[in-house]
Amino acid sequence: MISFLKGKVIANTGAEIVLLTSGGVGYKVTINLANAKLWPVGAEVEIEAYLAVREDALDLYGFANAEERGLFKHFLSVSGIGPKTALHLLSLGSAVEIKSAIGRGDLDYLTRVSGIGKKIAERIVMELKSKLASAEIGLPGDGVLGDVVSGLMSLGYTAAEAREVVKNLDATGKSSEQLLKEALQRIK
To answer: Which of 1, 93, 168, 174 could bridge 178 with an S-S bond, Cβ 3.0-4.6 Å?
Structure first.
């Protein structure tokens, strides 16, 4: 999977760039319109990337940083959102602003994107609110601490309660199950 590119920008249309690597391969990378100015023609750049594999195409999407790429991947996990829509959602603002809007359930903010109606905006908030809350305090969504937050939330604790308890756990050498037991002892 391609996740990082480094090379010289030889074309920039605003929606796509062509990046020539030192190996002589030119990659067409679809980008967020708001980030187009970050990659001027002739500049040597590094780009966080995501390769979307479809039956009939391999499409590369480029991002200014890993946080932006992570948010893009979260959007793709929501039913009804494809790569182009996810990229348009990133044009709403910075990753922090978008995460904040999702956290507070701001549907008006999300529906500013063409193709995102109220139902899809509600789905985004419902499916991503807890995932993004875990990430905000530095908990990997796929790691053991993320698992503990998810486990506590499935037991009925709020995301804030779960994050507060998990913040103080030492995960070194412990499984999710061990950490969940510790968290339950501390939360009572």
So the answer is: 174
